[in-house]
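One such shown below:

_____
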Amino acid sequence: MNPLKRFFSHCGKPQGRMGRLMVRGMNLGHKPIASWGLAQLEGEGAFQRIGEFGCGGGANVQQLLRKYPDCSITAVDFSDICVQETRARNQAAIDSGRLQVIQSDIAALQLPAGSLELITAFETVYFWPDSALEKACSLLRAGGLFLVVHELDGASAQARFWEKWVENLKVPTADELTARLRAAGFARVEAIHRPRLGHLCVKAWKEGESADIPPQ
């Protein structure tokens, strides 16, 4: 395998030394897109029970802990490297009881249904099967919010380039992701574009009286 392609193969599931380098690079390189994505939560309330799914190196967990000082977070990733890095970066939050970090595939995650108010997924849904989207919906309470943040929009030529370089990467367009989320059980979906940079944020709400969101 081409050495560069071998390195990028760790985007989906970082492993070993190269995977650790990838994760630490993601923590730094994805900071601007993560900050933009978190800004889309303004006005959505003060969440207390949050899931950070596909948590990578734990940088976004750290931002969420700061943004919502009264929250508790369940961070999930199926890479042991990502779990280790997230725990190391956020050990104080683990010690205080605000954070638990779980190694699991999202679709197989064992948490109580309806136990979360917000689930975030940064740069990870590219790799998710529909069963993982359905699991996310089932874990949200009525009216809960699922935030998906992508640096790439599937409508761009850049997306096609990275699909060739990263194994199992599939970059959806806003319409494709919206359709998948609605099929997974979400009542309303809103896509937010950042045209100059090609970024995409999608917010999906689970039907329920607590959010007063009518189904579409």
